[in-house]
């Protein structure tokens, strides 16, 4: 009998790689290099790093079929557990489900609570990665069936909307479902743009930039929003608006043959669909309808263009902002507020921080990437090849 107890304890505290592939039970550990995988093999959850193994996160990814045509961003996580709390990279870091039903990341003698079950102590809980990409923590009955859901990743989106996820709010509990952009393509921390349902019950989606309204979808009617074309929904996308006494949200589904679907709130205020322009058609500059005017504080709207060129530096009067969490879009907006601003740049290799220049006079070869706005005053100012990697090389306002 004693040997049987020891054997049971051994199996309980096994690494996840030796047990269930999509579920972690109390006392089990998910280690660096291991993963949870959904039963349909479409999603995986694992530790990852974006900066040459300096910092580390836990994220959920699409598994990319080897025979599939890939698009920019396909290898990005669809969800990041600790986006605003990166941990120092170490091979000994672990994810554990503890006795208090909390998912915890252990690193360097410290821990970060990934989920909070409000200290309901039980020895019968598990966390499972499902086929839709949702990571769900549940309390179990004695027979192993689900008793209640304690926490789920779909309730805490990062920048990505998957089929079946919600954008909106639970009226009774106050739960908010929204997407917030990354600071840059290499920094998943919460950025400047957020999209969600209007809290004033206008039945429309709103994108906020630093808390101010940046774009509105128009009201819902006839199966779409007023400022969103039906054509841009695509034939495989079913966009839905749900309004009940308890909840008000937008969601979408796709045809069974469509895989790897996602909508991303990007760092420049776009909602992007994988491999194409998204159904929300979000604007960067003021269009004929649907966007708040972008009149800058100090100047009238400037006829500016973006250029993607080889790295160069500029000489002139430079001002550096103290906030290193500014995105490149934030830096652009600061430049546009200053009538004499001729150039702006991120100050880190990951695309964060902000320098702006006025009265640019000299162009020199440079040691680091610089991202520049050319306002068509006859200056040829160059940018890093890494700038706007996706698709928007040149844009003009109005």
UniProtKB/TrEMBL annotation:
Residues 1-19 form the signal peptide. The keyword Kinase does not apply. The keyword GTP-binding does not apply. Keywords: Glycoprotein, Signal. Gene3D superfamilies: 2.90.10.30. Residues 21-150 form the Bulb-type lectin domain. SUPFAM superfamilies: alpha-D-mannose-specific plant lectins. Residues 299-370 form the Apple domain. PROSITE patterns: BULB_LECTIN (PS50927), PAN (PS50948). This is Uncharacterized protein. It comes from Solanum stoloniferum.
């Amino acid at each position: 009998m004693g040997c049987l107890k020891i054997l049971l304890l051994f199996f309980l505290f096994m690494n996840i790689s030796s047990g269930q592939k999509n579920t972690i039970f109390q006392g089990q550990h998910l280690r660096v290099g291991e993963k949870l995988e959904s039963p349909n093999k479409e999603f995986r959850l694992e530790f990852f790093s974006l900066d040459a193994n300096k910092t580390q996160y836990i994220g959920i990814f699409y598994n990319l079929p080897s025979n599939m045509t890939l698009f920019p961003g396909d290898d990005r996580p669809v969800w990041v557990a600790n986006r605003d709390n990166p941990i120092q990279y170490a091979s000994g870091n672990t994810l554990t489900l503890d006795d208090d039903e909390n998912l915890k990341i252990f690193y360097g003698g410290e821990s970060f609570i990934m989920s909070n079950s409000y200290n309901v102590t039980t020895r019968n809980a598990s966390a499972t990665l499902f086929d839709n990409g949702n990571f769900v923590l549940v309390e179990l009955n004695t027979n192993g069936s689900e008793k209640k859901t304690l926490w789920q990743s779909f309730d805490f989106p990062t920048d990505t909307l998957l089929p079946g996820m919600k954008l909106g709010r639970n009226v009774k509990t106050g739960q908010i479902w929204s997407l917030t952009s990354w600071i840059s393509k290499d920094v998943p921390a919460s950025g400047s743009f957020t999209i969600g349902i209007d809290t004033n019950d206008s039945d429309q989606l709103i994108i906020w930039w630093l808390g101010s309204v940046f774009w509105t979808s128009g009201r819902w009617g006839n199966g779409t929003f007023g400022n969103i074309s039906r054509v841009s929904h695509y034939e495989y996308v079913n966009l839905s608006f749900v309004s009940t006494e308890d909840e008000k949200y937008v969601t979408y589904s796709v045809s069974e043959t469509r895989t790897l679907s996602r909508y991303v709130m990007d760092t420049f205020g776009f909602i992007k669909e994988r491999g194409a322009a998204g159904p929300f058609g979000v604007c960067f500059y003021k269009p004929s309808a649907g966007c708040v005017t972008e009149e800058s504080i100090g100047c009238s709207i400037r006829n500016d263009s973006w250029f993607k060129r080889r790295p160069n530096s500029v000489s002139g009067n430079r001002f550096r902002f103290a906030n290193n969490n500014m995105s490149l879009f934030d830096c652009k907006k600061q430049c546009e507020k200053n009538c004499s601003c001729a150039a702006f740049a991120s100050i880190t290799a990951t695309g964060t921080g902000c320098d702006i220049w006025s009265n640019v006079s000299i162009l020199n070869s440079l040691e680091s990437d610089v991202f520049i706005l050319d306002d068509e005053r006859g200056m040829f100012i160059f940018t890093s090849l890494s700038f706007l990697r996706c698709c928007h090389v040149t844009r003009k306002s109005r």
